Amino acid sequence: xxxxxxxxxxxxxxxxxxxxxxxxxxxxxxxxxxxxxxxxxxxxxxxxxxxxxxxxxxxxxxxxxxxxxxxxxxxxxxxxxxxxxxxxxxxxxxxxxxxxxxxxxxxxxxxxxxxxxxxxxxxxxxxxxxxxxxxxxxxxxxxxxxxxxxxxxxxxxxxxxxxxxxxxxxxxxxxxxxxxxxxxxxxxxxxxxxxxxxxxxxxxxxxxxxxxxxxxxxxxxxxxxxxxxxxxxxxxxxxxxxxxxxxxxx
Length: 250
Fold this sequence. Notes:
By secondary structure, the protein is of the alpha+beta class. It has an eight-stranded antiparallel beta barrel with strand order 1-2-3-4-5-15-16-17. It has a four-stranded mixed sheet with strand order 6-13-7-10, with no helix packed on it. The radius of gyration is 32 Å and the shape is elongated. It starts with a helix and ends with a strand.
């Protein structure tokens, strides 16, 4: 009887060991499968056949237009992502305070301080030095230009910035109802009313951010992420959207 009880205990212990091994194998298999799915997409960039570049960080996700034209804006979206097997979930996040074109008067002094200036023309005259840059004070290439336009929107003069964004000092004498228009091939435009500067000798910084359309979208989208072959993948929307073919950027 004692031997039978010992034999039963050995059998039960063996069964428990087998169950533990099976459970551990299942857990490891699920872990490695999930990790493999994540490894195929984390820290990767892909060209999409929809004209976008898809970039996945560890948890961060962004898209941007691959080849924006000169007269079209680059589009950008962002969010976070997670994977569950072959299902990819993207949580889109709206951009906060995207950069806008602006000007800032760095320094200015009254024209009346100039020894030979006719005080009767103060309200229709100005000296100004412009420096035109992108965000973070980076120079713009190709170099931007500033146009001086009259109240009929006719260009009466134009200047191109040098490689550092500086434009030679502009002097307007005895004229009114003018505007400065700052333009660039791939950057936003800015219009500045010349009346803002009349009567002064000024140094003005103009910031023209890149021409980008920030996708102000918040929401969750699910996709089926499937490897087709080698560096080619399929991103199939599970929310009724289109299927995108992706090519991994090596």
